[in-house]
Design goal:
The chain is an all-alpha fold. It has one domain: Hydantoin permease (Orthogonal Bundle). About 70% of the residues lie in helices and about 0% in strands. The chain is built from 22 helices and two strands. A two-stranded antiparallel sheet has the order 1-2. β1 and β2 form a beta hairpin. α8 packs across α9. The chain is globular, with a radius of gyration of 23 Å.
Length: about 475
């Protein structure tokens, strides 16, 4: 049963708070830098990031250039997330509550719903990828598995059953709550890295060194190289732009600012720089073995025709997917749904709702319309760039890192704006979103899409500072920490 806000703090509005959304007392924030690092390790090594190296090399960059792109992109992400996480660490509040200071309690629902949409979509996509690995494992164990020819909703019944198994695994982990998720990542994150290192050693033996991909030079030079490099950096940032917004969902559990920064530094840029060459080296080995690069790890496992490797490798891919999905997608989506219905949903109920909505997305059909779907997601991701800029501008410049936490859970207080809508936040969000998305619709400035996230962050943040009224800034100094 959900506790009512009255049992948490009498002044809290019942439609703005429940146990899971309430501030976490300092005594209960028990995540160390180790927990933060392993959570990020669990997120960074996933199939989408693995295949991202293929996209970079397809632009005409060399393998070494790919590592440079990854280094620059994840350094920018680390700085952005380290700053945006500070409010969560200091006050123990999630993204959907922190953002109320810039948008108002009702206006905050706009970016929260957008973020929730992205989270549930990516959950469905990642879960479907894991289901493919599960299906490959079951086909290996039982050759007759793939012969189950019935179709359910356009999906072969054997694949549908594999998806059911994956969905149940997600439900089992999420049902244990946030603190057990931390324990799961404590094991899963480092374990997948160790397995990746073993795969890399195997690939180096097969390729008699780093392999042909590391010997292939870049095919671009001059302005073309700069354009491709910039596009690569933006694309890599785009994979995590949504998480740059809701990083307070994790940092609220961390016991200190130092733990948050050290953990993210180890788990985010460092892990990414280690993981990317693993993907490239293993793919190099596939060229030696099959004569062409195989970037999809599931396809590579099937081509090897070794049951033991298929079972072990498939289980690793499932573990890696569970690791990223639970923290990067289910957790933020749960908070976003709870923010919409705090009196009806707690974390466990919200996680079950995420699983149901994820099925309704029918990711097996979306895979056939990848170009259109990812264009929509690029637009939504561009809209979240301004949210990042607005949050940083509001917290560091306008509020000077000082918030009245109780006021975030009340209507008619200092953050309420006009009937719950803080207009500078809404207008800056629209302005930044339009600027970031313009390249998608105007061919003459299509190049803008390659830096859409940067444009969104800059325009959103600067527009917010220009629009916020002087009296709002004065209110920022009349708060307690």
């Amino acid at each position: 049963m959900l506790m009512t806000p009255d049992t948490l703090h009498p002044p809290y509005a019942p439609d703005l708070c429940n146990d899971d959304l309430a501030p976490i007392p300092l005594a209960r924030r028990d995540w160390t830098w180790v927990n933060m690092a392993t959570v990020w390790m669990g997120m960074v090594h996933n199939v989408v990031v693995y295949e991202g190296a293929a996209g970079l090399m397809a632009l005409g960059l060399s393998a070494w250039n790919c590592l440079e792109v990854v280094g620059v992109a994840y350094a920018i992400l680390f700085v952005t997330m380290a700053y945006n996480a500070r409010g969560g660490t200091r006050y123990g509040i999630p993204f959907c509550v922190l953002i109320r200071s810039a948008f108002g309690p009702r206006g905050a629902q706009v970016p929260v719903i957008l973020r929730g949409f992205c989270a549930i979509f990516w959950f469905a996509v990642q879960a479907y990828t894991a289901a493919q690995a599960m299906d490959a494992i079951l086909c290996t164990l039982s050759p007759g598995w793939a012969s189950l020819g019935l179709r359910i909703g356009g999906l072969p019944v054997h694949m549908a059953l594999s998806m059911v198994a994956i969905w149940l695994l997600h439900a089992w982990i999420a049902n244990h709550g946030v603190h057990r998720i931390r324990n799961f990542e404590l094991v899963a994150g480092p374990l997948v890295i160790l397995i990746g290192l073993a795969a890399t050693v195997w690939a180096i033996r097969v390729g008699h060194g780093l392999g042909p991909l590391f010997a292939t030079p870049a095919t671009l030079h001059g302005t073309a190289f700069v354009a491709a490099f910039t596009t690569g950096v933006t694309g890599m940032i785009g994979m995590w732009a949504t998480f740059a917004v809701n990083i307070p969902d994790l940092s609220r559990f961390v016991r200190s600012e130092r733990d948050q920064i050290v953990g993210q530094a180890i788990g985010l840029p460092l892990t990414a720089i280690v993981f990317t060459p693993m993907a490239i080296i293993v793919t190099s080995a596939s060229i030696v073995m099959f004569g062409h690069p195989v970037w999809n790890p599931i396809t590579l496992l099937l081509l090897l025709h070794k049951p033991a490797i298929m079972l072990f490798g498939g289980a690793t891919l499932i573990l890696a997917t569970l690791s990223v999905n639970v923290v990067a997608n289910i957790m933020p989506a749960c908070y976003d749904l709870m923010n919409l219905m705090p009196r009806r949903l707690d974390f466990r109920r919200a996680s079950r709702l995420v699983l149901v909505i994820g099925i309704l997305f029918m990711p097996w059909l979306w895979f056939n319309e990848a170009e259109g779907i990812f264009r929509v997601l690029d637009i939504i991701g561009g809209l979240l760039g301004p949210v990042t800029g607005i949050m940083i501008a509001d917290y560091f410049v306008v509020r000077r890192q000082r918030l009245t936490v109780d006021a975030l859970y009340r209507h008619g207080d200092v953050y309420d704006g006009t009937d719950g809508w803080h207009r500078p936040g809404i207008v800056a969000f629209v302005a930044g979103g339009l600027a970031a998305s313009l390249g998608q619709f105007v061919p003459s400035i299509a190049w803008l899409s390659s830096v859409a996230w940067f444009v969104g962050v800059a325009v959103g943040g600067l527009a917010y500072l220009a629009l916020v009224r002087p009296r709002t800034a004065r209110h920022a100094t009349q708060v307690t920490s």
